[in-house]
C-alpha cells in the first residue's frame, strides 16, 4: 500500500491529464530480455475445492447467489481512496478525517447484511491509529528465529486489529524477500531466506487470523526495489524478470506456506513480472497462485496499481483497491459500473464475477466475521481512555513488547567479553553516550508523516508499513535509570571540546541507517538507499571512528544490532547492555565486507531508463549467503550469526539421518474436485454445483426448476 495525504494534491493536479492517464499502462508491452516470457493462463480457477474452505464456500455461495449484478460488483471494489466508512461524528480526529477511517474500504450489500470491509495497514501494528502498540518490525522479529515469539507478536497485533474493528490486516510482507541490500522495504519482512520468511509469515498469519482478522500476504511478486515500481502516465512499473525455478524456490516459497495455513487474502505487487503487470498477470494469479498453490481466498491489487478492467478480471484479480484507476480522487474506476458493463456486454463472464464475489465473501465467512460483526472505531479511545470499551486495542503493550524486543537484539561482536557492562568495564567507570539516535525525536516520535524522517531513535522504517508510537522509550532515558551521571552528547559529529577520557571511561555510540517506501524521499533516499548506499546515516561511521580513537572502551550499537525495535527501544537495549538478559538474536540476512561481494544484479539498484526498467534476476537462486557460499566469499557476519553471554563448546558431534529423504519429486497435489458435488441449500431452494477442475464452473442453480444461473443445467 502506498499513498499519503501529502500526495493527494499532486494527484489532483495530475487529474487534468486523466484521459491520457492510462496510456503507458495499457499500451503494448515493452520488450523484456530474451528468454523471459509471460505466458497466458485462462480461465481463472474457481475457489471452493479445498476441504478446509468448503464450509465457508457453501455459505458464501448461498449469499452471493442472492446478490444482484450491481451488488456483486459492489463488493469487488474499494469505494475510492479517502472514501468509504464515514465515521460517526464523535469518532472524528485529525487522523481519520471526515471521510477516512481505514486505508481501504469496500462496498457493501446492506440488503443481505454483508458489510463494508475495513482494510488496514501496517506491517508492525495498526497503522494511522492511536492507542496501539508499535511492535518491533518484521526484520527484528525474524532476528529472534523464535517461532513462539513470532506467533505471540502476531496474536497481540491481531487483537489490536480486531479491537479497532478492522476486517483485513494488510500484512505480512514477504516481498521484498530481501534480494537487494539497498532495498527500501526489506525491514517489513522477516529476513532474506525463503524458509525463515515463510515460517515467520505462516505463524504471523495464524496469529492474526485466530483473532478473526483476515491476513493479507504481500506483495506478489518481485517487488525487490522501491524505485520505478509503479505504472503511471509516463512509464510502466519495472519488470522483474524471474525464471520459474528461482520464482518457486525463493520468492514464491513464503506465499506457498501462507496458502497452506489458509491465508485469506493476497496482494499483488506494483511492478510487472516478465513484462506483465502483477495486477493482471494471468500466469501469476490464475496459474501459479490459484491453480498451482490452490489459493482459495481473494486477490487484491496494491493501492492504485489497477490499470485494466476486463484484463485484470480475467487474469484472476478479485478485489480492486482502493477502487480508483491509477489516477485517484476523480471518482473513476475500472471496475464498479464498468465491471457491470463488462459483464453485460459479455467481456467478463458472469461466472468470473461470481467467483470474485464468492472469494471475498468466503474469506469473510472463513474468519467467522459474520458472527463477529464490527465497525472500525479508531478514535473511540480518545473519549474512553480509561474505560473498558477497547480491551483489544491496548493489549498489555509494554509487557508484551518488552518481551519481544529483548530477544531480538543481536550481538554481532563482543571482543574480550566486553558486554554486559555491569560485569565488565563499567565498574566504577564513567559513561559517555554519543549520537542523536540515542534520544527520541525532540518533536515527538510521530513528528514525521509515516515516519518519513530519521531523527532521534530509529524504531521503524518509513512508509505504509508503520504505526503511530503511543510513546517511545528511548535508550538514553533507559540508560540514565541505570547510570545517573551519564554524559550524553546529542550530536552526530564528535564534540570538538571533548577532552581525553579516563582509561576506565566507556563510550556508547548510537548510529542508524534508515529505509522505507518509495512514497517518501528521506535525505535523498527514494525508499531504497540510493543516496546513502550501505553507509550509516548522519556520518555515523565517522563518529564511531572518532570515538574509537580516544576511548579504550567503545560499544557501538551497530555491533549490538537493535534492528528496528518499535516503541520499547530503551529498556530492551539496557536489559541487554547491563546483562539482565542475554542477547539471543541472530542475523536474518548476511552482512558482507563490501557491497561488491554480491553480484551487481543484487548489489545495485536499477536506475532510470526510458521505457520500462528491466530488473533481471540473472543471479538466479544465488542471493545473500547462497551467493557467498557458491563463490567461497567470507561474510563479515554470516546469516544466523549472533552471540550470547554464555560460552559453551561441544565435541565429538555426529550426525545421523532420522527420516529417509523424500523421493526426488514431491507427491502430486490432491485432485481439485474428485467429482461434481451438489450442496442442498435449505429452504431457499438453491444448490451450488461445482464442476470438475477442467470445467471450472461454479454456478447458482435453482432447486425447483433445476436450472442454473446462466441457463445451464447441471449433470445429475
Ligand atoms: C518468466 O519467464 C520465465 C522464462 O521464460 C519462465 O520460466 C517463468 O515461468 C515466467 N514467469 C512468469 C510469472 O511469467
Ligand atoms: C455499495 O456499497 C455502498 C457503500 O457501502 C453502499 O452505500 C451502497 O448501497 C452499495 N450498493 C449496492 C447496490 O448495494
Ligand atoms: C465492455 O465494457 C467494458 C467496460 O466498459 C469495455 O472496456 C469493453 O471494451 C466492452 N467490451 C465490448 C466487447 O464492448
Ligand atoms: C470498537 O470495536 C470493537 C471491535 O468491533 C468493539 O469490540 C468495541 O466495542 C468498539 N468500541 C467502541 C467504543 O465503539
Ligand atoms: C571425544 O572423543 C575422543 C576420542 O574418542 C575422547 O578422547 C574425548 O574424551 C571425547 N571428548 C568428549 C568431550 O567427549
Ligand atoms: C491509554 C492511552 O494511551 N491513551 C491515549 C490514547 O490516545 C490519545 C491521543 O489520541 C491520548 O491522549 C491518550 O493518552
TrEMBL record:
Instruction: Give all residue intervals belonging to the Glycoside hydrolase family 3 C-terminal domain.
Output: 409-558
**Domain of life where this protein originates:** Eukaryota
Domain named Glycoside hydrolase family 3 N-terminal is located at: 111-361
Report if keyword Heme is assigned: no
Tell me the first and last residues of the signal peptide: 1-23
User: Which PANTHER family does this one have?
Assistant: BETA-GLUCOSIDASE, BETA-GLUCOSIDASE F-RELATED
State the name under which the record lists this protein: beta-glucosidase
Organism (species): Remersonia thermophila
Amino acid at each position: 500500500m502506498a499513498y499519503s495525504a501529502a500526495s493527494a494534491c499532486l494527484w489532483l493536479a495530475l487529474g487534468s491529464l486523466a484521459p491520457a492517464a492510462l496510456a503507458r499502462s495499457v499500451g503494448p508491452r515493452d520488450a523484456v530480455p530474451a528468454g523471459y516470457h509471460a505466458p497466458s493462463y485462462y480461465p481463472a480457477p474457481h475457489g471452493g475445492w479445498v476441504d478446509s474452505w468448503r464450509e465457508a464456500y457453501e455459505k458464501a455461495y448461498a449469499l452471493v447467489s442472492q446478490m444482484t449484478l450491481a451488488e456483486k460488483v459492489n463488493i469487488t471494489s474499494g469505494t475510492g481512496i479517502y472514501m468509504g466508512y464515514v465515521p460517526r461524528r464523535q469518532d472524528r480526529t485529525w487522523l481519520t478525517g471526515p471521510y477516512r477511517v481505514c486505508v481501504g474500504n469496500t462496498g457493501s450489500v446492506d440488503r443481505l447484511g454483508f458489510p463494508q470491509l475495513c482494510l488496514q495497514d501496517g506491517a508492525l501494528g495498526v497503522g494511522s491509529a492511536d492507542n496501539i502498540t508499535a511492535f518491533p518490525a518484521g526484520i527484528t522479529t525474524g532476528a529472534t528465529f523464535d517461532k513462539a515469539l513470532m506467533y505471540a507478536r502476531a496474536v497481540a497485533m491481531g487483537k489490536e486489529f480486531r479491537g479497532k474493528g478492522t476486517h483485513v490486516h494488510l500484512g505480512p510482507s514477504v516481498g521484498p524477500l530481501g534480494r537487494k541490500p539497498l532495498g527500501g522495504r526489506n525491514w517489513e519482512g522477516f529476513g532474506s531466506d525463503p524458509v525463515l520468511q515463510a515460517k515467520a509469515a505462516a505463524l504471523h498469519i495464524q496469529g492474526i487470523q485466530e483473532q478473526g482478522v483476515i491476513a493479507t500476504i504481500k506483495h506478489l511478486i518481485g517487488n525487490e526495489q522501491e524505485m520505478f515500481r509503479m505504472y503511471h502516465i509516463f512509464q510502466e512499473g519495472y519488470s522483474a524478470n524471474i525464471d520459474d525455478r528461482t520464482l518457486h524456490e525463493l520468492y514464491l516459497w513464503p506465499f506457498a506456506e501462507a496458502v497452506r495455513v489458509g491465508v485469506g487474502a493476497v496482494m499483488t505487487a506494483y511492478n510487472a513480472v516478465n513484462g506483465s503487470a502483477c495486477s493482471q498477470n494471468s500466469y501469476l494469479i490464475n496459474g501459479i497462485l490459484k491453480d498451482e498453490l490452490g489459493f482459495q481466498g481473494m486477490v487484491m491489487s496494491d493501492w492504485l496499481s489497477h490499470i485494466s478492467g476486463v484484463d485484470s478480471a480475467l487474469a484472476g484479480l478479485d478485489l480492486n483497491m482502493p477502487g480508483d484507476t491509477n489516477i485517484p480522487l476523480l471518482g473513476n474506476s475500472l471496475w464498479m459500473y464498468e465491471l457491470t458493463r463488462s459483464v453485460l456486454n459479455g467481456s467478463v463472464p458472469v461466472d468470473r464475477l461470481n467467483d470474485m464475489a464468492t472469494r471475498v465473501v468466503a474469506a469473510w465467512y472463513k474468519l467467522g466475521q459474520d458472527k463477529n460483526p464490527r465497525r472500525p472505531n479508531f478514535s473511540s479511545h480518545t473519549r474512553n481512555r480509561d474505560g473498558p470499551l477497547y480491551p483489544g486495542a491496548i493489549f498489555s503493550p509494554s509487557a508484551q513488547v518488552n518481551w519481544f524486543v529483548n530477544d531480538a537484539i543481536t550481538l554481532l561482536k563482543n571482543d574480550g567479553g566486553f558486554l554486559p557492562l555491569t560485569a565488565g568495564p563499567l565498574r566504577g567507570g564513567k559513561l559517555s553516550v554519543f549520537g542523536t539516535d540515542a534520544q527520541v525525536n525532540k518533536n515527538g516520535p510521530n513528528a514525521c508523516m509515516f515516519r518519513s524522517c530519521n531523527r532521534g531513535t530509529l524504531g521503524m522504517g518509513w512508509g505504509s508499513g508503520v504505526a503511530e508510537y503511543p510513546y517511545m522509550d528511548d535508550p538514553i532515558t533507559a540508560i540514565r535509570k541505570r547510570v545517573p551521571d551519564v554524559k550524553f552528547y546529542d550530536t552526530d559529529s564528535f564534540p570538538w571540546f571533548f577532552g581525553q577520557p579516563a582509561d576506565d571511561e566507556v563510550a556508547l555510540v548510537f548510529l542508524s541507517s534508515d529505509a522505507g517506501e518509495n512514497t517518501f524521499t528521506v535525505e535523498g533516499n527514494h525508499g531504497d538507499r540510493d543516496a546513502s548506499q550501505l553507509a550509516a546515516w548522519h556520518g555515523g561511521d565517522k563518529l564511531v571512528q572518532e570515538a574509537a580513537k580516544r576511548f579504550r572502551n567503545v560499544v557501538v550499537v551497530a555491533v549490538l544490532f537493535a534492528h528496528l525495535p518499535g516503541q520499547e527501544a530503551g529498556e530492551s537495549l539496557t536489559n541487554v547492555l547491563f546483562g539482565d538478559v542475554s542477547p539471543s538474536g541472530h542475523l536474518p540476512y548476511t552482512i558482507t565486507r563490501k557491497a561488491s561481494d554480491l553480484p551487481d544484479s543484487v548489489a545495485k539498484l536499477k536506475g532510470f531508463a526510458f521505457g520500462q526498467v528491466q530488473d533481471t534476476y540473472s543471479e538466479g537462486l544465488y542471493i545473500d549467503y547462497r551467493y557467498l557460499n557458491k563463490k567461497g566469499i567470507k561474510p563479515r557476519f554470516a546469516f544466523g550469526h549472533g552471540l550470547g553471554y554464555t560460552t559453551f563448546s561441544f565435541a565429538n558431534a555426529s550426525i545421523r539421518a532420522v527420516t529417509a529423504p523424500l523421493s526426488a519429486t514431491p507427491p502430486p497435489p490432491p485432485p481439485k474436485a474428485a467429482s461434481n458435488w451438489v450442496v442442498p441449500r435449505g429452504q431457499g431452494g438453491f444448490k451450488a454445483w461445482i464442476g470438475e477442475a477442467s470445467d471450472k464452473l461454479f454456478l447458482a442453480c435453482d432447486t425447483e426448476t433445476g436450472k442454473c444461473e446462466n441457463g445451464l443445467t447441471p449433470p445429475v
